Amino acid sequence: MYMQWKKKFAFIFSGQIFSILTSSMVQFSIIWYLTETTGSATVLMIAGLAGFLP
After folding, report:
1. Residues near 47 by Cβ (< 8 Å), separated by ≥ 6?
2. Backbone φ/ψ region at 39: left (φ over 0), alpha (ψ -120 to 50), beta
3. What is the pTM of this model?
4. 21-41 pLDDT, tens per residue?
């Protein structure tokens, strides 16, 4: 019983790490795409700020 919670915790924690990493990669790629296509610093600023919103 004592080891059971560690397996559950490791499974959930690894899923959370994967989720955070992939969300960050998507956010970075969207900001990169918008900046490259528009070439505007204003779009970069707005996209960067919007990326930090929940």
Report:
1. 30, 31, 34, 35
2. left
3. 0.71
4. 999 999 999 999 999 999 999
Distance CA 13, CA 7 (A): 10
Q: What is the dihedral of CA 44, 45, 50, 51, to 10 degrees?
A: 60
Tokens of 54: 């929940």
Residue pair 51/31 in contact (Cβ under 8 Å)? The answer is: yes
Cα-flanking dihedrals φ and ψ of residue 37, to 5°?
A: -75, -35
C-alpha–C-alpha distance, residues 1 and 5, integer Å = 7
